[in-house]
Write a structure and sequence with these properties.
heterodimer; A: 183 residues; alpha+beta; 5 helices; B: 469 residues; mainly alpha; Formate dehydrogenase/DMSO reductase fold; 16 helices; 68% helix
Chain lengths: 183, 469
Amino acid sequence: MANKKIEGIIAEFKNPAELIRAAEKLRDSEYTKFDCHSPFPIHGMDRAMGEKRSPLGWIVGIVAFLGLGAGVTLEWWTSTIDYPLVISGKPFFSYQAYGPVAFAVMVLSSAFVALAGMLILNKLPKFNHPVFHSDRFGKVTDDAFFVSIEANDPHFDQKKTIEFLKTLGGQHVELLETDEKNE
Amino acid sequence: MTKTSNRIQIAETPLITGNQTFSTITDKVSSITEQKTPRMWYVLFGAASSLALIMFSLIGYLIWEGVGVWGVQIPVGWGWAIVNFVFWVGIGHAGTLISAVLFLFRQKWRTSINRFAEAMTLFAVICALIFPGIHVGRIWVAYFMFPIPNSMGMWPNFRSPLLWDVFAVGTYFSVSLMFWYVGLIPDLASLRDRAKNKIRKIFFGIVSLGWRGGNRQWKHYELAYLLLAGLSTPLVLSVHSVVSTDFATSVIPGWHTTIFPPYFVAGAIFSGFAMVMTLALVARKIYGLEHLITLRHLENMNKIILVTGMMVGYAYSMEFFIAWYSGNAYEKFTFINRAFGQYAWAYWIMISCNVIIPQLFWSKKLRTSIPVMFVASIFVNIGMWFERFVITVTSLANDFLPSSWDYYQPTFVDIGTFMGSFGLFFALFLIFIRFLPLIAMSEVKGVLPQADPLYYGHNGDGKGEKHGK
């Protein structure tokens, strides 16, 4: 238990307004590896933290087109190339009738990518994270608001950062530590 | 009082009543899953699962004996199984409308009801999928429905509406499940953080995926939620449109009409809202959620029931008009036969339940009365089942050739399987409300006035600009 490694600092804030103000100050002081934890998404937080828009929309948009193409390709190849069958005298490539299935394949593949992409971008599932070492942090899914700063932030300085968080109104400022051997 | 009090008087009715704070919401919703299981739950679950068991036994009997154990015959080759399928798929649509369409339209009132409406969608679609699944006759070759490479080198017929159904409903189920799960993640994390015993800690720890509620996570999360809502929205329209093409692309009188897709979609939303209403009223009463699912939510749903009921009524009359206006003798006969023929009783049950009963909701007093809306919602569900019965059976029983006409009657296997599907539906629903948060806590917190940073003003003292609301 002797070798403890500092992973970061966590501070609690009273309400969403204080959290936003803290985020703005941290952004202006050029901290980059910090996060603001809240029980629900807070409107305006992205700008306060200087966050860019999530790229997920582009990813899902591209997949939607690929899915649509895959659906049409499947229908075209199976009904005209691999096993052409005359059904009610319709042409082999009856594109009018191919709409619903191609559409379904598009929606299904994009929805799957929206879910998987969200998890990958968020690096989830991740069951072990330094913030969970704080006993108070469990309240974040209830009614508490936290700022966490990671120790590998270039501006991180144990003493100064703690002081800074306190001046912003942070309460219960805590060091997040892990045992070296757990690494 | 001051100026602020004037603003209170003209403000809207609040969404959530009873001076809730963030933690009272967490507490209220989470404690349902944490307290000891009420005895009533066991009674209801026992009854529901017994019914479901009857259904599964009857399905076993059906597979053993063949579809001859049902009442289907010639000319009525599609009986209760298709009626039930359309009925259950339709129910699901309200859940998607609430979770996706109302989300895109920023209807904040949806947050109190979307979770269990989505759960209802999933369970209704499960019930729906059973019926065509067991109707295929040779169930061991049911995989023919999917484009799986096989030794015969054959593929499904992509020109067939029945195959479109497989894709449409399969996609609908998968997308609804993913949407529902994404919505659940923050709430599962709430349950994880409240968990007292080890099993709950481990279980909710795993299913909440290590959610930390950081804004860097919320950012992607919110966009994923928006995208899933955007992807589910066309499904509200497309799934039941595809289901209606099962009928509309055939040449049977009474089926071969272009009004079917919008007519089916309106009916689906109509019946689905009625089912959400029934379930919401029961859940609200049992668990004392009157402050979260308020009269305003219920009234809004009743308005939607009224609107969609009118659309359905319009479709009924338009069908009649077109039957006459088309000058087609078979078409004309089919509709007169629906209203006055051997299934007239079913037709008038449908009209009474779907067109007449919702008219009660024009009155503010009636649409805000709990007993009235409860009874009306049940009638609407009955009526919508009969709508599908009327469409399916009357057109087939009296088709082109009078010599082949017959009177279709269900057997006990038909009836038992349908009743059993209700058992399955309610058993799944009971499991859901017992073990998972039935109200989307993180979303409800987000619509509270204190969730808005502007609420706190410049001093963080709760005296901000928006305080009056």
